[in-house]
Amino acid sequence: MLTETHWISIANHSARRQLRGASTLRGDIHLSTWATVTNTSLFRKKQGGISYLEGGDGPPVVLLHGIPGSAQTWAGVGQRLSRHYRVVIPDLVGFGLSAPPAGDYYMEAQAAQLGALLDTLGIDELVLGVHDFGGPVGLTLLRMFPKLRVQALVVTPTNFFTDTYVPPVLRLASVPVLGTLFYKMIAGNSVGLRLMYRAANKQGLSAPTDHLTSGAVDLTRKIFQRSLADLHGSYRDVESMLPRIRIPTLVLWGDSDPFFSVAVGERTAKAISGARLHVLTETGHFVPEEQPAVVAQEFLTFLTGLELHWKSFAKLTR
Questions:
Q1: Rounded to an integer, what distance in angstroms lies between the CA atom of residue 27 and that of residue 235?
Q2: Is the dihedral of CA 13, 283, 200, 202 positive or negative?
Q3: What is the C-alpha separation between 7 and 199, in angstroms, rounded?
Q4: Terminus of the chain with fewer CB atoms < 10 Å: N or C?
Q5: Beta carbons of 3 and 43 less than 8 angstroms apart
């Protein structure tokens, strides 16, 4: 459970990825950056205001990041998965290289933009992976787009609950003016977020620059404050989705997450029918970034052990 001590310590390079520049135009898609792990690549693309990484062929796997975060959260995992699947990793609206929000920036607005992106990409069935704020955004996507055929779900540290413990100092979120000033101090600046990121992972990683664009820093603060100002109201619809999930689910948690303890991971797995929990040792909050090879292998082992029925694919690519 997140303690006040953890937050106070947070208040008071991710491993460098080899990114090589390429720049070419294909129709209205701009390919700008690619990263290689063995023989796989992820290409930077853009549709409308949404920037995303994509690579590989086969059944689609869509991976959603949290805060602070960007598509780089899942890049190491996605590169490995793209040997077997079509991987799509969006920058949420206002994060990474995506355009800033035109209006709202919270769960439903993010889910609406993701639903439009998937429709444009011709994706109506997928495996979904989520981390942190990407968790409630992902469940909101399922609620708002019930025709999406999500075949399986992989959950890394996140919160789905209305009654998660909030330390007293963080309850300032609901206090006008003072709450905003406090949250700007701890989560509304790049220094505070770098400290938070460093404190919350066990590998000594530094936050990637894509996580800390000026727009992303401001939105990270707003999302933290909005969530904690009214956790019950903000997460009521998210928590109500949990008993309705009837798809294979894998929950991957860090044993040393200072935000959401293993007990939260256990509760998450129990709330989703048939979900499996695997706790990763010597791992903090940023599971996909801290353990990309392990997470990718867990993904592959989980998916290849399932009897999934894809409309668009005769069989899973292995």
A1: 40
A2: negative
A3: 10
A4: C
A5: no
User: Out of 62-76, 104-118, 162-176, 232-246, which region has the weakest mean confidence (pLDDT)?
Assistant: 162-176
**Half-sphere exposure in the Cβ direction for 75 (13 Å, CA):** 27
Residue 128, token pair as written in the block:
């979904």
Q: Are strands 50-55 and 40-47 parallel, antiparallel or unpaired?
A: antiparallel
Rounded Cα gap, residues 254 and 281, in angstroms: 6
Residue position matching structure tokens 């530094």: 206
**Phi then psi dihedrals of residue 247, to 5 deg:** -125, 155
CB contact set of 294 (below 8 Å; sequence gap of 6+): 280
pLDDT for residue 212 is more than 80 = yes
Angle between helix 231-241 and helix 134-144 axes, rounded to 10 deg? 60
Predicted local confidence at residue 103, as pLDDT? 94
- Could you give the residue ranges of the DSSP H alpha helices within the chain? 4-11, 75-81, 107-120, 134-144, 178-187, 190-200, 214-229, 231-241, 262-271, 287-290, 292-304
CA dihedral 148→137→195→191, nearest 10 degrees, is 110
Does 101 sit behind a cis peptide bond, omega within 30 degrees of 0 on the bond before it? no
Phi–psi pair at 73, nearest 5 degrees: -55, -40
Answer with the residue of higher pLDDT: 236 or 316: 236
* Radius of gyration over every alpha carbon of the chain, rounded to an integer in angstroms: 18
Using an 8 Å Cβ cutoff, are 58 and 43 in contact?
no
- pLDDT for position 7: 34
What strands, in cross-sheet order, belong to the sheet with 19-26? Answer: 19-26, 29-37, 40-47, 50-55, 86-90, 60-64, 125-130, 149-155, 249-254, 276-280
Helices (H), 38-81: 75-81
pLDDT, tens only, 60-86? 999 999 999 999 999 999 999 999 999
User: Cβ of 186: how many Cβ atoms within 10 Å?
Assistant: 22
Q: Which of 148, 155, 126 is nearest to 61 (CA)?
A: 126
